[in-house]
Every structure is written in C-alpha cells, then in structure tokens.
Design a protein that fits this description.
Blueprint lengths: L2 H32 L1 H22 L19 H19 L1 H22 L11 H17 L2
Helix pairs in contact: 1-2, 1-3, 2-3, 3-4, 4-5
C-alpha cells in the first residue's frame, strides 16, 4: 500500500470516528422523540435507501452474482449493525457521548486486536507483539481516566 493510500485510509478512519460520535448523538436524540427501536429502524432504513441509490442509480457496485460464495456468517453484519446502533443509542443518553464512545472504542479495539491476532473472518493474521499489548492496556487506562 502506498503512502497516499495509507493516508487516505487514516483520513477515512478519522472521519468515520467523528461520524460515529455525531451519528450516535443524533440517533439518541431521535430515540427520545420516537423510541429506541423505532430510531434504529429509521437509521437502517435510511442507510438502505442511500445504499440502493449508490448501487442502482450511480452504478457503484460489486458482483451480486457471487452472493452465494460468502460464508453464511458474513451475512450477520446487518444483525450486528442493529445491535451496534441499539447499543449506541441506548448508552449515549445514560453515559454521555464521550463516555459511551470511549467504552465503544475500548470494546472495538479489544475485539479488533483479537480478530487480528487470530486472523478471523478470512483476514490476514497480524502477529501478537508485546508493545501492542501495552498499547491496549494504555488505551484501557486512558478510558478509565476519561470515565471519571
């Protein structure tokens, strides 16, 4: 991967993180008005509509012909997406955006660390090195400080 491609990936990751905090706050606001499950439905319905337009109107698509080639568990992403949205929307009003997002990130990075080390879901295995464990510990310690 070139430096330019790496930089684009870094920028996209930061933008996704900012979007997650904004989206979680907006979804929590919507949940206060219409309800938790109802707001989760609206979020995923809106995402479906946008994705439909990107694929079928703008022609940004892959290969639906290979849909049967993926392992069955890869299709659980939508179910997990509902769990994520519900968890974010339910936790932000009770914990605040910063605390909820901090806990989400600690959980996310911990799971990602495990997925990398084991090479799960067809991803390339990333070796376990001691300094990454220290980094994970520092992340958790920093989260603890932020949650005070």
């Amino acid at each position: 991967m070139s430096v330019t491609a790496n930089m684009l990936a870094v920028i996209l990751a930061v933008v996704a993180g900012v979007a997650m905090a904004v989206q979680g706050s907006m979804n929590s606001g919507l949940a206060k008005v219409i309800g938790l499950l109802e707001s989760t439905l609206i979020v995923h319905g809106t995402g479906t509509i946008v994705t439909f337009f990107l694929i079928f109107v703008f022609g940004l698509k892959g290969d639906f012909g290979k849909i049967g080639e993926a392992p069955w568990y890869f299709y659980l992403g939508g179910l997990i997406g509902v769990l994520i949205t519900y968890g974010v929307v339910a936790s932000i009003p009770k914990l605040g955006v910063a605390s909820a997002t901090t806990l989400i990130i600690v959980g996310q990075v911990s799971a990602a660390f495990l997925i990398d080390c084991l090479g799960l879901f067809g991803l390339e295995r990333v070796p376990l090195v001691w300094y990454k464990l220290i980094g994970l510990g520092l992340l958790a310690a920093g989260a603890r400080v932020l949650l005070q």
